[in-house]
Specification:
2 domains; globular; 3 strands; Structural Genomics Hypothetical 15.5 Kd Protein In mrcA-pckA Intergenic Region, Chain A
């Protein structure tokens, strides 16, 4: 059962730890998404496997209860932005680790242009410079829901936000004087 303060492991390790092709692929993902370690990739991979397992299970049934579960699973994936609103259950089987990694707060901050690199985005999140709807979030693995992307910005009292505002103001002044 375990200790109540110590949560269980949320990922499965690869079955063959020294597979060169898998290691190269994981290294590319780590660089592309600015991840700290491969455990974050394994967590995303475990999520993809769970979703696929659930979809295969639901594809085998045609009962009313299973129909409700299909709607719930597809709704969950649509809310998180992993799948589109009109996706079918078969589309879950085509999910990849990158689909999950794209929805992390760290990646969304980088894609939104609040940081120059994925590693810098991770640093901003961990150090408390990023807020979602005005609330500070310091977990780079936070899954950003589809409607929350526009609410991401710098925390109001963050010194980084003030520096960027000053930099943009100076940049705008320089552009006006050169024109």
């Amino acid at each position: 059962m375990g200790h109540p303060r110590k949560s269980r492991k949320k990922y499965n390790t690869p079955p063959h730890p020294w597979n060169a092709e898998r290691i190269k692929e994981e290294n590319k993902l780590m660089v592309r998404y600015g991840l700290k370690n491969k455990k974050e990739i394994w967590k995303a991979d475990t999520l993809v496997r769970r979703y696929s397992r659930e979809a295969r299970y639901l594809l085998g049934f045609s009962l009313d209860q299973m129909e409700e579960e299909k709607i719930e699973l597809l709704g969950h994936l649509a809310r998180t932005g992993v799948l589109s609103e009109n996706a079918a259950l078969e589309d879950i089987l085509n999910l990849t680790v990158e689909d999950i990694l794209r929805r992390r707060l760290q990646t969304v901050v980088y894609k939104k242009g609040l940081a120059r690199t994925p590693k810098e985005a991770r640093m901003f999140v961990v150090h408390g410079h990023i807020a979602l709807n005005g609330k500070k979030i310091d977990s780079p693995s936070y899954v950003v829901l589809k409607g929350q992307e526009d609410q991401i910005g710098f925390y109001s009292s963050s010194p980084v936000a003030k520096q960027i505002e000053e930099h943009n103001a100076v940049k705008a002044d320089v552009e006006e004087t050169t024109e």
